[in-house]
Amino acid sequence: MSLTLDLDNLSQIGGFPVTKIGEPIVLETSKGKAIAFNGIDQGLILSGNSIKGASAFTIEIIFKPDSSFPHNVEQRFIHIQNLKNENSRILIELRLTPDKQWFLDTFIKSDDRALTLYADNYLHSVDQWYHAALVYSNGTMKHFVNGIEEMSGLVDYTPIEEGDTSIGMRINQISWFKGLIQTIRMTPLALNPDEFISVGKIPA
């Protein structure tokens, strides 16, 4: 069953208590509320892991990256980690380029196995809304932007059990995100693109 995390408040998201880092702001967008992060010292930590124990998963996010090159070249804006084992983690990241574009960078680390999908051949303009998804099942990791698969690879993954989730930063409070995040959805299944959050829901 999917769990949708609507970023419309700063106290409880998806039923998880929230710890604020700095002062992120809830803003009204053309399609509803979103949380703005300044790329300097603002983030959120959720006390929980929505894909706890899942051997397959899909993590989706609707977000709008800002143009903040060269100050925020590496932005690790979703991070799930077993706090007792730093070698058990999942990250969704982006990289900025000097010409105000970005590309998706996703990462799974599972004990001595790891895989990075570094999609530097798939560039997107900043200051627009996007849907990104990370999907894992049966040893295969894939990521998508606006429903289009960009990269895939093989990695053995042991499900993360106990752990927290950071939004807008890496969980150790570095690699800050600058921009807006509206929705995150986590599903303990490998979804197909036609099952993703509708691209039509991406704010204009």
Kindly state the percentage of residues in helix: under 10%
Let me know the number of strands. 17
The helix/strand order is EEEEEEEEEEEEEEEEE
Q: How does CATH name the architecture?
A: Sandwich
Q: What is the radius of gyration computed over CA atoms, rounded to a whole number of angstroms?
A: 15 Å
Structure characterization notes:
There is one protein chain. The chain has 204 residues and is mainly beta. The chain has a single domain, classed as Jelly Rolls, CATH 2.60.120.200. The protein has no helices and 17 strands. The strands form two sheets. Strands 2, 3, 6, 8, 9, 10, 11, 12 and 16 form a nine-stranded antiparallel sheet that branches. A hairpin with a 2-residue loop joins strand 10 and strand 11.
Keywords:
mainly beta, Jelly Rolls, 9-stranded antiparallel sheet, 8-stranded antiparallel sheet, 17 strands, 53% strand
